[in-house]
Q: What sequence folds into this?
């Protein structure tokens, strides 16, 4: 599961890391939430960072439903909702951390998870065109040992060298699936943050500050 994340690095840092330019001025995101337009690199324009909506509206059922924001990496190539996007419409989702909540006696405690290097990174994503506009979901995988104490799932974080492969629609499906392993536990870190992150209305650098244990 991945329901909140951060893309808080400066525009120049993100552009240098991805070798791509923003199509509009980047506003740092400290509490990226479903339904928002967020920085994404589509396979159709690998040198541009576009503002794309997070979440796909389900096409089934008569009543309005919540946005689909995640897809399981183990089944994404099989599910009718995602299969074609997995094959032909993949994307890099710009991030530098994500939030997850650990169940505790006093309630759920949010943690921020990031690379130990502090660098930006990309979640593996797929996208569809909804009402003439692109929209994306984040792929998730089983948690690595560090994450398992917090939650049993985590978003798929791609290594930098894998970006080009992920965007290559000609890569055999077997090789694409091999990119979706949990990120190594020794390369990430996790720390407590304020419960203010629980509200998607809150958007402040204070959200990513470490809180006492």
A:
């Amino acid at each position: 599961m991945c329901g909140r994340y951060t893309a808080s690095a400066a525009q120049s840092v993100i552009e240098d890391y991805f070798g791509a330019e923003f199509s509009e001025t980047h506003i740092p995101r400290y509490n990226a939430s479903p339904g928002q337009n967020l920085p994404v690199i589509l396979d159709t324009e690998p040198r541009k960072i576009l503002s794309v909506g997070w979440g796909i509206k389900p096409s089934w059922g008569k009543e309005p439903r919540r946005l689909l924001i995640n897809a399981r990496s183990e089944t994404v190539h099989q599910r009718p909702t995602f299969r074609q996007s997995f094959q032909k419409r993949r994307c890099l989702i710009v991030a530098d951390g994500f939030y997850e909540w650990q169940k505790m006696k006093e309630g759920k405690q949010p943690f921020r998870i990031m690379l130990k290097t502090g660098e930006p990174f990309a979640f593996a994503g797929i996208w569809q065109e909804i009402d003439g506009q692109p929209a994306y979901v984040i792929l998730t995988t089983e948690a690595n040992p560090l994450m398992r104490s917090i939650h049993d799932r985590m978003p798929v974080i791609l290594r930098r060298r894998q970006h080009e492969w992920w965007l290559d629609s000609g890569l055999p499906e077997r090789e694409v699936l091999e990119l979706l392993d949990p990120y190594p536990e020794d390369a990430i870190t996790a720390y407590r943050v304020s419960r203010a992150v629980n509200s998607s209305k809150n958007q402040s650098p204070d959200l990513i500050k470490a809180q006492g244990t």
